[in-house]
Structure formats: structure tokens, C-alpha cells
Amino acid sequence: MKSFKEYVQKEVAPALAKELGIENTMAVPKVLKVVLNVGMSQALKDTKYSEVIESTLKRISGQKPVKRLAKKSIAAFKIREGMVVGMVVTMRGKRMYDFLDKFIHVSLARIRDFRGISTLLVDNHGNMSIGFKEHLIFPEIKTDEVERIHGIQVTLTTNAHNKEKGLALFRKLGFPFKTVEEKKKK
Fold first, then answer.
1. What is the pLDDT of residues 89-133, one digit of tens each?
2. Euclidean distance between CA atoms 120 and 141, whole angstroms
3. β-strand 128-132 against 66-69: which pairing, if any?
4. What is the CATH number of the domain that holds 141?
């Protein structure tokens, strides 16, 4: 059985190069990193919330999350300079490919009423950010052990320099996009 990284290098990259008409193999778009991000607005009210988020991100990624601190105080949000306002995990290399394989083939299928990913989630630089209201879609999270449900954002950074190349890359990787194009809301 091939690893997902080998599959991407031996099958996806050549097919993508042929589709986009790229001769240089180093110019073929690829995923550079995957970032998991969780905001901690609830941690102001409940101190145990930050521990729950940290253990969740450790389970999902296999890495210890980095705490992000507020750069300046904002009285309206009851935030002081230096307070923890979020946690982030950045994955590259083997962990990134293992996460992508699990994310594409298992996690997206566990979303309730899933009808595909909107193409509007891919920005003009070929990167994609997907936000989830519940972190329960990941198979490492056991629903009976969950104390608090929180959201999570997954950002995939690529070296595709435009939206078309980014969409082509994500389609070749196996991301299920909606078949009917969405109309932009006014």
C-alpha cells in the first residue's frame, strides 16, 4: 500500500503537470503546509476550555499547539495584551500528508449534511481555508469523551499562484467540490 505522499508525487503531480501544461516538475503546484487554528474566546469565561482545546489539537495533529497571544489590549472584548487568544498547529512533511489523507477520505465524509466544498473557499493565491463549527469530524475525537464542542479552522497553503491552479490541485488530491457553482452573495 502506497503512502499518500507517494501517491501525490507519482500520480497526482504528473497528471496535474499534464493538465496545466507545465513541463518543469518543480513548477507543479503542491501543498506546502496545513495549519489548524482554534480561537479561544470562551477561555475568558472558563479556564478549563484552553486545556480542552490543547488536548484536541494534540490528538488531531500529533503535535503540541502553539499559544497565540494578544498583541494589544481591547477593552470592548475584555482582552489584555499578552492574553492567550488562540492556538495553532502547523504541519509540514510526513505529518501533513498523513493529515491530508485522513482529512480528505475520512473527516470530510463525517460532516453532517455534506454536499461538497464550495469553490469560493479557495482564494486568489490558490490557498484554501475551511472552517468547521464542530471539531467532532476528526476520527481521533471520541464523541463520548467530549466535554465541550468548539470550532476549528483548517488552512491549506500551496504554491499555486492563482485560483485555477489551486482548484486543479485540490481536485486532483481528491477534495469533493460542489458540482453546481455557487452564486456569489451580494
1. 999 999 999 999 998 988 888 888 888 888 899 899 989 999 888
2. 28
3. unpaired
4. 3.30.1440.10
Residue 48, in any domain of the structure: yes
Strands 31-39 and 84-91: antiparallel
- Cα separation, 20 vs 159, in Å, equals 14
Is 3 inside any structural domain? no
Pair 154, 129: CB distance under 8 Å: yes
Q: What's the first-to-final CA gap in the chain, in angstroms?
A: 47
Considering the entire predicted model, what is its pTM?
0.84
How many domains does the structure of the chain reveal?
Answer: 1
> Which residue range is the domain that position 101 belongs to?
30-173
Whether residue 92 lies inside any domain: the answer is: yes
With a CB cutoff of 8 Å and minimum separation 6, the contacts of 164 are: none
41 pLDDT above the threshold of 60 = yes
